[in-house]
Amino acid sequence: MEKLARTKVKDLLKSQPGQKVLAKGWVRTKRGNKQVKFIALNDGSTINNIQVVADASLFDEELFKRISTGASLAVTGNLVESVGSGQAVEIQATEIEIYGECDPMRFPLQKKDTSLEYLRSVAHMRLRTNTFGAVLRIRHAMAFAIHKFFNDKGFVYLHTPLITESDAEGAGDMFQVTTMDLANVPMHKGKVDFSKDFFGKKTSLTVSGQLEGELGATAVGEIYTFGPTFRAENSNTPRHLAEFWMIEPEMAFYDINDDMALAEEFVKYLVQYALDNCMDDLQFLNDKYDDGLIERLRSVLGIAFEKVTYTQAVEILEKAVSEGQQFEYPVHWGTDFQSEHERYLVEKYFGKPVILIDFPKDIKAFYMKQNEDGKTVRGMDVLFPKIGEIIGGSEREASLEKLETRIDELGMSRKNLEWYIDTRRFGTVPHSGFGLGFERLLLFVTGMSNIRDVIPFPRTPKNAEF
Ligand code: 4AD
Ligand code: MG
Q1: Any ligand 1 atom below 6 A from CB of 249
Q2: Is residue 112 one of the residues assigned to a domain?
Q3: Which of 61, 92, 249, 273 has minimal CB crowding within 10 Å?
């Protein structure tokens, strides 16, 4: 006899009744009585379960005792129209094979506590919950859509190094990479002798692929990176990870306006893609955690993002303060905005996503193009409801002289950056780029409120399990 092939639950739910099928998956729930048992089976291909109906008289009674939430099964049976509500089809089981039992006393997802906090404490198992299944599928869909967006526009996916010597953002919050014996560090004249280290110099995990991205953009025109980045900032907030994924497009011949236009088109494309392709999962998250989610996703599509200069934004915030608005952190010209300020602008003042431009040069990285006023740079931050900053970018300083002067002013090493400065020395061009924080995007798209819940294995201060 021909061996029956397994059909995924997602496909079974769309299949015509009246055929013999084989389903495999994990038990979500089991209920029933002496005559008939109902098993909800899920294989992760969709948020939805396939209902298995088993006539108890056809099976050994012991079998059902061994089937509990979390157990893994192979079920053969007939796909029939479902009499119960909630599903079009179900499986009338003829054969049930147990792959693995799941001890109800010990299985961590058996507990009544299904809070996100509790699930973080069993993060190795939480992937099997409906919530994390939905998050993982949406995460995948967004990653795929990102590649599709840039591929369709003719961008080249550039792989930039994870181990690097340069602190692109100049914030000094890098994780060092070394093979030196930390109990016996080689020293030379009172300083650590990095010439003895693996690479013969001090190296770290990258905080951004941008600088190498600029090398690519000034060669093949338009590139994007999509990879992990690492920041050793000790920020224990619902929006910061020590290891997060970033998408960094970099484009030759783009000015700041082209850059903003691309950023807006890009995030709208991703939100539209999620609405078009992930509706089951979005609906689940909407119903379970955030009943404004789908509406909020739709709300960013139809409108143009508001463009505001940093200076105008400071005036708005100062006026708000004078009218009684309370902020934890003070604002005045020259300060970096906190998330509370960003959210005020987006949620209260404009009621839509905001693109902030023209920042004081002292709060931004060395590579940003300087404006004529000598005080501000052509940076842009895209701010989103509930999140604050989701994208940071800029037009890049294309002038060799200005770039070198700025590097000196900031006390950075020109020597370490010679390779980067060469882009301005040889055939320099106006160019721009930005970085989208992948998990920040996912916070917006899934409606989850803690960044630890949109990445499978979060890394945060004092937490690097698995
Ligand atoms: O604003 P950032 O620091 O910009 C850069 O790294 C530039 N090199 C980007 C570029 O122009 N190519 O970071 C970009 C984005 C932020 O807007 C935020 O969404 C995200 O990365 N991000 C973080 N996400 C999670 N955890 C952290 N600790 C993050 N730091 C930044
Ligand atoms: Mg930023």
Answers
A1: no
A2: no
A3: 61
